[in-house]
Amino acid sequence: QRMLSLNLIVRAVILHEDKLLATVLNDGTRAPFYTLLGGHQRMGESLLECVVREVFEEVGLEVAPSRLLYIAENFFSRGSARMHEIGYYFLCTPVHLPSGPLLRSLRASHSEMISPELLSADELAACDFQPGLLRDVLADDMRKRFEGGPKLLVVNELPGDSTAIGGVYKL
After folding, report:
1. Which of 57, 54, 28, 30 has the alpha carbon at shortest distance from 40?
2. Is residue 38 classed exposed, middle or buried when 0-12, 13-18 and 19+ CB atoms within 10 A define those classes?
3. Cβ partners under 8 Å of residue 131, min gap 6
4. Contact (Cβ atoms closer than 8 angstroms) between residue 132 and residue 72
5. Cis check: omega of the bond before 98, within 30 degrees of 0
6. Is the whole model's pTM more than 0.85, yes or no?
7. What average pLDDT does this structure show over 22-30?
8. In the chain, which residue ranges form alpha helices assigned H by DSSP?
9. Which ranges of 4-66 does DSSP label H, i.e. alpha helix?
């Protein structure tokens, strides 16, 4: 087995008028896809501090995390790198609601390649959102208003490098 690089990330699940705030990631190295706001955790930074910082850096929105929805383990390759990414996904609410449309009030960070959009559960289910397992679970949970406890999502695109069994597990 080859060594995998470990990434720790935090993502924000932000709902506004029953739609999910997502972004299109278009970094020029692969086909554009949807993902959630958030990013890498810094050394010495708590998970909650990280999600607040990342959302503010990416779109200028101050959020309050309310609960952990998912822990996602994703085993994948990017170029020649083999990755083991652990992501913590928090339900977050804006601290101050804008007076006008949410998307117009955001300051998208173009240096971070952020293009925010609001997606309904059906739009989310039909788009290229990565990882795909998270898209499916997130769209279903949006329809159910996030009933139930947190879940562990495991995506293994590297069966030769990891013995992880993919799936959705209740925590």
Report:
1. 54
2. buried
3. 72, 74, 76, 153, 155
4. no
5. no
6. yes
7. 86
8. 47-59, 102-105, 121-126, 132-143
9. 47-59
